[in-house]
Structure formats: structure tokens, C-alpha cells
Amino acid sequence: MTDTKKIVHIHIDHSNYKTVMTAGRHELVSDEPDHVGGKDLGPDPYDYLLMSLGSCTAITMRMYADRKKWPVEDIYLELRHHKAHAEDCEDCDDPKARIDQIEIDIIVKGDLDDDQLGRLLEISKKCPVHKTLLNKIEIDSTIEMR
Description:
Strand content: 25-35%
CATH architecture of the largest domain: 2-Layer Sandwich
CATH topology of the largest domain: GMP Synthetase, Chain A, domain 3
CATH superfamily of the largest domain: K homology (KH) domain
CATH class of the largest domain: Alpha Beta
Number of strands: 5
Oligomer: single chain
């Protein structure tokens, strides 16, 4: 397996918070809601994070079910993100000491038994985006003036 870099391009101008994002030939728009100064022209960045995790999870589950030839008709996911106070954090006295929490509800339509459903739940946690979010991530940024 080669180690290829994924490249996306992001552009924002004076249009408040509307951001144009391109990945190959695909173009998407992100924005912030009205109440924070945006124009709600597209999903906000956290919506895209949840969509990325959700789509990767669904694809991973579908691939596994297909490989096993299980009768899975549809897979639906509902994802929610919020900030929660850490139960055992070192800085709990700090009102800003919160951790990101993502909840995923998965509904599978098909004729599966409890063992198969349990296995699909395990597999859902093995999608690459899920693993990336749980791993240590390094972000190296540079800046230049043009």
C-alpha cells in the first residue's frame, strides 16, 4: 500500500464565513449559521466532521455485510456532537474543561440475528475515520503572504 496524501483546497474571501472546499472535481460549501454571523449557505465544519465519520462508518459496515453476504437492505446513522464536561479531567474546576463527544445511533434494516448486529456494531468502530479521530493527530501548518 502506498502512502498517498489526500489534498483538498479551501477558500474563503470577504463573504462572511462561506467557505468553498474542493476535493478533486468535487466542490462543497461550508458556512456558519446566521446566529454567529454566517449566512447558513451550507453545513458548518462540525456537520462535515459528523458526515465524514458517518459516511465512513456506513461504508465500512456495508462492505463487511456484503463480504459476509448478510441480508442488509439499508443502514441509517444519526450522529450528534456536543461538548461534555470530562468526568475525570484534571482541570474540572475550569468551566471550559470539556471534551468532544460524538453519539452515533445506527439502524440496520434487514434480517439479522443479535450476533450479526453485535458484529456490525464492532465493525462500525473500525472505519478509518473513526480510528483517525481516536488516534493522536499531528497537524503541521505553514503560512505565507502573497
